[in-house]
Structure formats: C-alpha cells, structure tokens
Amino acid sequence: MMSFTPNAVLGLVGLLIVVSCADNKVAGKHLRAESSTRIAFMSDVHLHDVHGALEDVGYRGIKNPKTNKFALIRTMNAQLHSTRLFNENYFAFRAALDDAVGRGIKLVALPGDFSDDGQPLNVRGLNRILDEYTEKHGISFFVTTGNHDPKRPFDIPSGKSDFLGKRGRAQPIMSQDEMYISNSKIENSTIISEDIRALGYQGIVKGLKNHGFFPKAEFLFWESPFSDHEYESYTFEGGKEAALLENRNYLIPGSEQGIPDVSYLVEPVMGLWLLALDANVYLPADQNNQFQGAGIGYNEVLQHKKYLVAWAAKVAKEAKRLGKTLIAFSHYPMVDFNDGASNEIAEVLGKDVLQAH
User: What is the reported pTM?
Assistant: First the structure.
C-alpha cells in the first residue's frame, strides 16, 4: 500500500524477528532446527533502479559530469507530490541489506510493494540486487506481492511524466505513443519504451523466479493454496508442477479470465514455515477484460478469496501437528490497522485520511 514517507523509511530499515525453533519429534521425524533463526522483514521497498536502463531504446538517464556515470532518476517534484520516495529507496534498501549481512541474517522477506509499479526496468533492478546478495552472502529472499506489484493482474500500458531529463527539465517516459502530450516549453519530448509498462503476474514472477514464488531443490517443503500434496509425501518435482502459474488461478464473479494467486508456503530451514499471502484482489472494471487496482486488501479478500483464509487456517493446523514454527506475512494487515481507533480518527480527520478505508 502507499505508505507515507516516514513509514516507508522505517520499513526499509527492516523489522528483525527472532524465531525459536525447538527440536521436536513429530511423525517419527527428528526436527533439528537451529536454536534461533533470524529473519529480516523489509516492506514497501518501492525500488526504483537509479542505475538501470531502458534496454529497448538504450536510454540511461542523465549524465553526471563529475563522475561520467548515468542516473535514471525521478524529479524532486515527483517525490514532493507522492506518498513515497523514489531515488533514495535504492540506497536505503542496499543499506538495509548490508545491515542484515552484518547481523548474519540469511532469510529476508519482502512483504509487497517491492517495486515502483512493477515496470520491467525496476523488476530487473530488484532481481539483480537480490541475486547479488544471494550469491555473495547466501541470503534467501521470500517475496510476496503488494498493490504496486502488479498494479493489475496482466500487463497494462504505463509511464511516468516526471523523470529528470536534460537541462533539469522533466522527462516523460511512456510505454506507448499518444499516452501523454508533453509541454515542450517546460519538458523534454516524450521517450517511448516498453520497459516502463506495468507488468502483470506473469512478468513479475518470471523476473523474480528465484526468490520464493517457486520451489527450490534445497527447500524441505513448498505448496500453494491450490496444491494437493501432503507434507510426508512431498517431492520437489511435485512442488514444481504445483507452482506452474496456470495451476494457481481463481475466478472473480463477473470475469471469465482466471487471475493468478501467487501465495505460497515454504520450509527453507528445518522446523520453520513461512507463509507468504498474496492478498491482492482485482475486480472487473467497466471495460472489457479490464480490472480495477488492488488497493483495498483484506476488505476484498474476505469476500472474493475466502479459500485463501481457509488455506491459512489449514496451514496453521498442519504446522501445529508437525511441530513447525509458522510465520505468516502479507502486504496488508488482517486486523484493524489503527488498533481499534479507526472510527475516532475518521471523526476527527475524515473517513479517507491515511487510507483508512
């Protein structure tokens, strides 16, 4: 969800949780988990790849005359009129990861809004960073989606009019012609690039395929809400079949098109279960085969994805049976975000303030 800047920065610092995984004997198995497993949670990264490039047109942004390096950045005006930061998040995220490395943390969860609207530019940039920290430091990442990634379940045209361009002017970048008419007196002419479109599920999970959305051979267990395998009979091959995106769809009333749900349960180390919940719900829009955004979260889940809540309950029951430590995470809160004070806040400040709706 769009977090106000202070919250976004706090999210990037990371919430450290210490999980005790005691040894248990369950169903004839001796679970020898480490005495404590630490996990860093980094939500609302909203990564904008300042060192990225629009590969289809070869555009890398503006050149720094002192370093001769290019930067693909947004204007300060863009940040002043947004509820989140853009350029600084790249460096804040890397600093948070470096802090996790310094603490010896090997598991990092990203509970949604990991990208700036799911553009190929930024999904590539995020994947490059995650791959780097995996290869150099042995960190495993577990990603789930927020309402900014993807904005819609399938690719849609998109763009931003407020990149920083030559002569300090705004540089519009759009994925299609005629999406935006630039003011040539105060802006540079529009650049057209497919790398700025908003990816749907297919492109995002493919771009981040090594970071939780799919099982790995070293994982002890992996399943989705649509899986039918049991823990005791789990195989990696069965997990791969269950993880195919065509096997992870649900229907919304009023739409004939299946929508992906990329929730998953994974056991990365013995005795620890991580439950990543994809709480995005996309309702049909007025236009044919178009969908609304996913900004409401669990308000819609409880009506349109009841199977997800039932699956979470089943997972909790199984975790207790098997003696697993279960941690669930999602982009949206499943309880009152304002700890019971929403009505009072609405009376004082207005019903839509701070996205209370």
Answer: 0.87
